[in-house]
Structure formats: structure tokens, C-alpha cells
Amino acid sequence: MLAATALLAAWSLAPGLTPQAGAAPLENPEAPPAPIAPPPAASPPDGGLAPDDWDTPDSNEVSVGEIPTIETIELTADIAKRALDSYIAAKEKYVNSDFDQFENLQDFVDQTDDGKKFEADIKAAGFANVSDWNLAITTLGLTYSSVIDDQSADLQLQIQEVEEDPQLAQDMKDTMIKALKSLIPSENNRKVIEGLMDDPVYGDRLKLLDIEEE
What we know:
disordered N terminus; single chain; mainly alpha; globular; 0% strand
């Protein structure tokens, strides 16, 4: 599922930097989020939001706590550009940093010199902290992925199937529906990304996220 994979794709600096699916990584687009960090194109974020896994869920096998919800923000063109610029710059600047040795972006920041430099770069880009930046880049990757390969109709169908499944407990339904809805970008975010795609400079820069997904 491209939408789910996008956010992980955006994290290609460090596997432990996922999109806020409760808090995820950046790099590895096929894990929850991955390299700078979650949360992937044909693969769902860590923990798995793959629709196929939900066809016949068994309450004895699936825990509500194992279903991640991707946290996003409402983008503006300015936030999107700053997030993308800083992501590309960090990916090049910290290419030799051991992001994959840390479970999350904050640990990298707290425990390494490169991490502290990275945090300074993020703040210089106008973000209050790495968590805010992570949310922005996660939203950017998820929305861009959805715009180039819209999965909204499929996700809405999955939501309907979950709602109508008589075998699912209500708390499980609520959690699964919330997780699925989190993969559908807002109209505002779609418009922001579409505007960037039409920009002669940022249109090409956005494609670097697409490369990560593949």
C-alpha cells in the first residue's frame, strides 16, 4: 500500500526515525518508518497496516495496541518546503551516521554528536524540535505518496468492511478505523503537495521521496 509506505519512505536517513504512528522512524521505507528516518510504498509501516492482514482478524492474534495510527499535521507550503529542504540536506550531510543503531530519532539526537548537530539544523530550518520536523516530513511523504497513487477509495472500502464486520469487537473496530483514516490525507494537504508538484524546483525535489519508496 503506497500510502502507508510513503511515510516510511520519507525516512531514509535512519530506520529508527518513523512517522508518528505513535512515534516511528525515518529510513527504511519498508519498516515503519526509516534513513533519516515512519511511516513505505507497497509495504505498511512497522506493526502492519496492510489491509490484507485485516480480512479475517482474530481477536486472539491481533492486539489493539499493535495497530499503529499515523499522526500528521496540516501543512502549509512553507512548512512543506522547509521540511523537504531539511530532509534532503540532512540525508546528504549525515549519510555516514549510524541512524540505524537507534530505535528512534530522539535517541540519535540525545546520544550522539551528529544527532545534536542534526537537531541544530532542524531548528535552523524553523522547527521547534525534531519531533515537529518528523511529523512534518511524515505528513509530506504520506500525502505525496497518496497524490501520485491515490488509495483513498480502497481505504474507504476497508473502513466500511471493518465497520460491517460482526466478529470484531467495538474497540478493535474503532482502532482499525482510526488507523485506516490516518492514511487518508486531508484536502488541504493534498492541495499543498499538488502546488509543490507544479513548482519547477520543488516538483523535482519531491521526486526524491518517490525514489525512497521504490
